[in-house]
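Lab meeting, item 3. Inverse folding demo.
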């Protein structure tokens, strides 16, 4: 039986075929339209024969995220021709540039807060997400997230999540409703197998902070040597279209920092396979609590580098520090 993803792709291809036929009526004889029609028909034909998603050269499975990005794929990554491979590399470079354009600046100031971030994909494109944006009422929204899966499909959903939250923030909704809406929108447009963990926070000028943690690794509140964890208040977004979300409230004193990170940080491993872990992260933060946000991020990266001692980075890694100023 065809997988749900294949069923979804079939719908997509059938719809695309209809559009191409309409286009062929409008511009008869257009070589590109005719070629695309042939390719779409060939893909639909492969679905009928049960050979869809199988490399024509080695009969191995084609990488799922590549198929989702382009259901017309006929070859696995190992069996692309040289021009195909070069075209793919150009596309990936372009996608990476687009994604970098969505990131907030490495360090920023907002009324009463400074924010610093570090973003490092394990591959050219990443499903990690972070953002910090000031609202019209002077409050600061900050977010970090991790889309399930890897590669192009995950990064497209990350871009989608970015656009969704940027569109929702100006509506000035209560935070729990904002996350509930974002989850619904993500659910409607993402593949059934995709979801995202997300922390969304709103910080007011006077230090009042509200945080919703949808299934993400716990943000750490750094108050001098005291480090508190903000446990998840709900499941990841996009899993169920009608899921509801809640939030917790806390208060930051001047000098307190919220450290947000993705699991690529706490799950980083050294050559002996040992995990960096949240306890080590907490221990390190207790020593760097007095630092400005960019220095705190820099010091943590240094500690991770020393810990890894040359072991390769296996996962995307994102860090963001939100510090209340004096
Ligand atoms: Zn192959």
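The presenter then showed the designed sequence:
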């Amino acid at each position: 039986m065809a997988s749900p993803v294949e069923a979804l792709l079939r719908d997509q291809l059938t719809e695309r075929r209809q559009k191409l036929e309409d286009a062929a009526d409008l511009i008869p004889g257009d070589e590109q339209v005719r070629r695309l029609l042939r390719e779409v028909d060939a893909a639909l034909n492969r679905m009928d024969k049960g050979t869809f998603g199988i490399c024509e050269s080695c009969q191995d499975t084609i990488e799922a995220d590549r198929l989702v990005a382009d259901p017309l794929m006929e070859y696995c990554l190992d069996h692309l021709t040289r021009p195909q491979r070069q075209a793919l590399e150009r596309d990936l470079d372009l996608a990476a540039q687009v994604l970098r354009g969505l990131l907030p600046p490495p360090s920023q100031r907002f009324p009463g807060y400074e924010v610093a971030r570090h973003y490092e994909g394990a591959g050219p494109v990443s499903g990690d997400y972070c953002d910090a944006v000031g609202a019209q009422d002077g409050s600061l929204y900050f977010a970090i997230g991790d889309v399930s899966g890897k590669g192009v499909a995950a990064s497209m959903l990350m871009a989608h999540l970015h656009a969704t939250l940027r569109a929702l923030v100006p509506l000035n909704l209560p935070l729990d409703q904002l996350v509930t809406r974002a989850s619904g929108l993500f659910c409607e447009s993402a593949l059934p197998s995709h979801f995202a963990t997300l922390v969304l926070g709103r910080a007011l000028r006077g230090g009042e902070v509200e945080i919703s943690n949808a299934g993400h690794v716990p943000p750490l509140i750094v108050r001098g040597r005291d480090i508190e964890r903000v446990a998840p208040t709900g499941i990841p977004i996009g899993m169920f279209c009608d899921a509801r979300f809640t939030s917790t409230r806390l208060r930051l004193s001047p000098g307190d920092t919220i450290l947000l990170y993705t699991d690529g940080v706490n799950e980083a491993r050294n050559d002996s396979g040992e995990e960096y872990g949240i306890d080590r992260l907490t221990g390190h933060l207790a020593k760097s609590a007095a630092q400005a946000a960019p220095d705190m991020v820099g010091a943590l990266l240094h500690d991770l580098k020393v810990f890894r001692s040359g072991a390769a980075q296996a996962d995307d890694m994102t860090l963001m520090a939100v510090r209340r100023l004096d």
